[in-house]
Amino acid sequence: MTAVTTDAVATDTRRAGRWVYGSAVVLLCAWVIVPLYFLLINTLSAPETVNSFPKPFIPEFDLGSLTFFANFAGMLTALKNSILVAGLTMIMSIVIGAPAGYALSRFDFHGKELFRLLILLTRAFPLPLLALPLAVMFIQTGLDDTVFGLALVHTTLAIPFSVLITFALFSGIPLELEEAAWTLGCTRLTAFSKVVLPLILPGITASAIFAFVISWNEVFAAAVLTIENRTLTAFLLQNLDTSPLHLKFAGGFILVVPALIFIFAVRKYLFAMWGIASR
Amino acid sequence: MAQIEIKNVAKRFGTYQALHDINLTIQDQEFMVLLGASGCGKTTLLRIIAGLETATTGEVWIGGRRVDDLAPKDRGIAMVFQNYAVFPHLTVFENIGFGLRMQKLPNDEVKDRVERTAELMHIEQLLKRYSGELSGGQRQRVAVARALAMEPDVILMDEPLSNLDALLRMEMRAELKGVLAASNTTAIYVTHDQVEAMSMADRISVMHQGEIVQAASPIEVYRNPAAEFVAGFIGNPPMNFLPAAPAGDGKWSVAGQVVDGPSSGKPLKFAIRPEDMRPADTGLTATAKVVEPLGAHLLITCEVQGSMFRAVLDSDMSVKPGDQLTLAPQPDRMRWFDPDTTLAVA
User: How far apart are CA A43 and CA A128, in angstroms?
Assistant: First the structure.
């Protein structure tokens, strides 16, 4: 008798638990997906529809807003700047970050733990705190309002991630493989290029894309350090109060989509960076 | 010609002394096994010879050339690693040909040599596969083939069979021995498995706590261990030890029995292998404790005057736990050790 009731209670609890779990999943998904969906609808609608009310729930696939966006003065230059800065950031953070990751995983040196901590510490200071002195320094050195100057700042933001991701990648490759290559006629350099590099190339690509996204999404330093050569984020921010609604939607969409696609593509490696087993 | 000379090599990791003053000469085309428990320094010594580790002091000579300052690639060696280290991004063919490609050999010679060594290791049907598609035994064959394809003067092997299952290990052992004998290379083989060492080696160097305790042929190491450590390490079950008291002029009293021994004034340790005991009318009195029939033999763990003692007897004998046995040691197989220095006394 008792057994039957406890069973019934247990079943009820389980059912309730499943229900809570299910609704939490739905809620979280909605939290992320619904705004993105509205962004999509409004981007793919004619400017008139965007400004009217009520709004449709199905995109009408009108390219009017996007065309308007493309024709807006300065917008394409800003887009080009964004791509340039993000591309430069990507290259510099890998060129600087990957050797650091290799050193961390393969060599024992004094202060190694401190070094790892310091790398993370670069993210501990709020950017506004750094941006103003940087702006002054950049003006003095002539780096202000240049693509390269902004890319330098973005590189410092991206480097902690590129070091930690590449550190995890190199650590995943047994030293024996390199040693085998050394005994088979390789120098340290050729062993790296013939054995290590092919094995980590997918991960390096992921790390590079991540750096690209960090730069692509960054708005504060971009807004402070550039005037003429604005990136897309800074340009949209500058025109936020004056631009029409459909321009904001189109701009937001153009900003979000590459970041989303890239992050989705490299999610496996980002999990690896945080110590969660990939796959 | 590749004789290897190791002169006064020592290695220190921080405060830990991994190798003490090692001196060893390995003849051209000799198969030398470095045998010892884990942490005895055998792998460190191998890695110093390979150039993957630098000795703190001392010199390594290969083929009459001092190699301490040379990179691994310039030492004329090839190495087989414990975890195979087969490159996962290359096919078996490209793995075996890796070293040849580094030497910039023409394509058809690479192809020729890869196919020849693959055939030798019986992996010619696997050449197009990747490491992920191979079993452990197959990967091991690829690793050996990759080393052999280099046609090195010296081949170094670091516990190459330890990751294989018992049956495969036995098969590979015999095969490796045959292939290496035919290849005319000098081989240094690190293992902790004494059966592997005994069955493959021309000469065994038994290592203990960073020192070479004995370097001799397998049968010499087995019959005439140079130190108590070797006697207790080699052989399964190992040698028996009993205290011996001098009983005047080359006579020794061992567990109440007087036997002939070396002439020495101070007490010694008497040692004998379990299979060198025979049931007899006079001898050591032993009480059987555990009787293990092993098919061919009977392994009897017994007690002789409070000490544990093992004997391997013919399986025809019927012995039960608690039985009193009288066991006579074969006179020519008795060995003696100095309890202070632990070295053998002749």
Answer: 31
* Bond before B293 cis per omega within 30 degrees: no
Architecture of domain B238-345: Beta Barrel (2.40)
Residue A275 has pLDDT above 70, yes or no: no
Distance CA B42, CA B159 (A): 10
Task: Specify the range with the lowest mean pLDDT, choosing from A241-250, B103-112, B306-315.
Answer: A241-250
pLDDT over 90 at B8, yes or no: yes
Nearest residue, CB atoms, A180 vs list B51, B71, B79: B79
Are residues B150 and B100 in contact, defined by beta-carbon separation less than 8 angstroms?
yes
Q: What are the residue boundaries of the structural domains of chain B, listed by start?
A: 4-232, 238-345
- Spatial neighbors of B131 by CB under 8 A, at least 6 apart, are B84, B86, B87, B88, B90, B92, B95, B139, B142
- Return the CATH number of B4-232, one of 3.30.1540.10, 3.30.460.10, 3.40.50.300, 1.20.910.10: 3.40.50.300
ipTM value > 0.90: no
pLDDT in tens, B68-102: 999 999 999 999 999 889 999 999 999 999 999 99
C-alpha to C-alpha distance for B310 and B294, rounded to whole angstroms: 14
A276 vs B136, more confident: B136
Beta bridge partners of B309: B302
Count of C-beta atoms within a 10 Å radius of residue A222: 26
Structure tokens at A158: 């991206």
Q: Which of A98-102, A119-123, B1-5 has the lowest mean pLDDT?
A: A119-123
What pLDDT score was predicted for residue A4?
Answer: 59
Q: Does B98 touch chain A (CB under 8 A)?
A: yes
Residue A276 has a pLDDT of: 43
The whole-angstrom separation of Cα A217 and Cα A166 is 22
| Token code pair at residue A77 | 């230059």
Classify residue B164 by its DSSP letter. Answer: S
Give the nearest partner residue to A174 out of B72, B85, B156, using CB atoms: B85
Q: How far is A161 from chain B (nearest CA, A)?
A: 26
pLDDT score of A278: 36
The Cα–Cα gap between B272 and B339 comes to 15
Q: Name the nearest CA neighbour of B179 among B203, B204, B205, B147.
A: B147
Distance CA B299, CA B279 (A): 13
Q: Which of residues 138-197 of B touch A (CB under 8 A)?
A: 146, 150, 156
3-state secondary structure of A162: helix
Residue A175 neighbours by CB distance under 10 Å? 13
> Helix or strand or coil: residue B261?
coil
